[in-house]
Amino acid sequence: MPKPNLTDDERNGALHQLLALMAPDGTMPRGAFAQVAERFGVARHTIRRIWHRASVDVTNPRQLCQDVSSRQKGRSGRKPKHTSIADVIKDVPMVHRTSFASMAAATNIPKSTLHAYFKRGAFVKSSTPAKRLVPVPKKVARDTMANDANKAAPGTTTESPGVL
């Protein structure tokens, strides 16, 4: 039964072992790939692919070889079902964006899916102020009523007392 894909550390370890086995003139001794493959429990063709991907250059002291880490990161696995999730969430009213449960009910997207997209950064938290803003006409009416009450009360002033 074949072994699953090598991790990045195992790939680098295989490359280091190959570099240790390499002859001073830059050639690989016979059976080196098979020997390293046996240590890691993979086929020798896998080790050979890692070696060729490293493209070792003995003459370059700055960069001896290329990166051999896996290219599967971020591109493997199930493809996303909801691609425009940020647009869907923007269409939901602010009242329904207070929790994952209410967002899930408003968008018909499972709560766990919304949480996964949130963790990936597809959308960010947004909160509303605890005290809602008063509309301007109501605020003006309230202020005028308060000023009228202050003027009507005897012995009161609209100025704030200074701090001594």
Automatic annotation (TrEMBL):
Annotated DUF7769 domain residues: 6-55
What residue intervals traverse the membrane? none
Instruction: Note the InterPro entries from the entry.
Output: DUF7769
Output compositional bias ranges, type Polar residues: 155-164
One protein family per Pfam: DUF7769
Region annotated Disordered sits at 142-164
The protein in question is named: DUF7769 domain-containing protein
Organism ancestry: Eukaryota, Sar, Stramenopiles, Oomycota, Saprolegniomycetes
